[in-house]
Amino acid sequence: MLLSTTSGNVRLPSFDLLINILTIVKYKYMFHFNNTNGDTMKKYIWIGFVITLLIVSTGNAIANNDKIQTASKEFTHTVFAEECTATWCPNCPYAAEALYNIYQSGDYPFYYVALVNDMSPIAKDRNRDYSFGFIKVFAFPTVYFDGGDTIFVGRENNASLTEAQYRPLIEQEGARTPKQPITMNSSVTWNGNAKLTITINIKNEGNLPYFGKCRSYVTEIVSRWNNNFGNPYHFALLDYAVNKYVLLMPKITKTITGTFDGNANHGNQTFEDITQDNIMVISSLSNWQPHYRTGYESDQYNQKYFAHFVDQTTATTPT
């Protein structure tokens, strides 16, 4: 197995406890500050104090020995992968080819994005999410499946052998039971002049509240960036149209909208030349609960991170 490595603020873990507290308080107290008498702000401060106190006293991030479920063809959700890569990386093209072959096969409900570290500051920031500490450590290529629940670091001697490593991980994630059953669908409207409007409908089909993060990755189907073999990436991240936390109450559908303007600044880059037929927006929902994971390891460096499991994914192209 071959790989390339790189090294670069520790983040506070979050837990199911937060969900229980959010269930107790009224939604408006958490997300609106519209009372002129200051009552809402006082309640928010009090709730924040209680959450902080309880989290500090309950440091129970879930460790690596989470139960691994048997892989199954009966997927519980659409699986999502993030490809940590760089154009200079000689070991990355086989990973890119393997992922695209799996996607093209249609064998699974599966989407992925390429996080091209050296070409996009936004992708670089997302890669850094998968490493905590003052020195950021991660390897190229690394593929994070469903928010980093399972990963594969490096590559095999060709694309076919690399693909053979990825497929069981996709099947394993597909068999995982989400925190709550979630259904998602999305649409993207092409407004002309490199502008998009994204609409996502998310329904919590379960019986308990769900708190997590919704990300909508605006990607180019055939990327403007080439890998080390000179071949274009697929589904390379340009920027997010949506990147926000959401609270989903049981049996309720929430609609989220976002926009993307290619003429705007996206990590000191503009994408005014994007075309309608070369864009796919991939939206994922990841649970708030952290799961402690180990990534790349060597005698000198060890990658540690918190995985936030992706429980549903949807994708669409502009109309």
List keywords for this structure.
319 residues; alpha+beta; Immunoglobulin-like; 2 domains; 6 helices
Give an overview of the whole structure.
With about 325 residues, the chain is α+β, with helices and mostly antiparallel strands. The protein has six helices and 15 strands. It has two domains: about 5-10 and about 60-315, Immunoglobulin-like, CATH 2.60.40.10; about 15-55, no CATH class. The chain has helices at about 15-25, 25-30, 40-55, 95-105, 120-130, 160-175; strands at about 5, 80-85, 110-115, 135-140, 140-145, 150-155, 180-190, 195-205, 210-225, 230-250, 255-260, 280-285, 290-295, 300-305, 310-315. A four-stranded mixed sheet has the order 3-2-5-6. The chain has a four-stranded antiparallel sheet with strand order 10-9-12-15, with no helix packed on it. It has a three-stranded antiparallel sheet with strand order 7-8-11, with no helix packed on it. Helix 4 (about 95-105) packs across helix 6 (about 160-175). The chain starts with a strand and ends with a strand. The model is unreliable at about 5-40, about 40-45 and about 50-70 (pLDDT under 50).
List the SSEs and their pairings.
Elements: E1 4-7, H1 16-24, H2 27-31, H3 39-56, E2 79-85, H4 93-105, E3 110-116, H5 121-128, E4 137-140, E5 142-145, E6 150-153, H6 159-175, E7 182-192, E8 195-204, E9 210-226, E10 232-248, E11 253-261, E12 279-287, E13 291-297, E14 302-307, E15 310-316
Parallel strand pairs: 2-3
Antiparallel strand pairs: 1-4, 2-5, 5-6, 7-8, 8-11, 9-10, 9-12, 12-15, 13-14
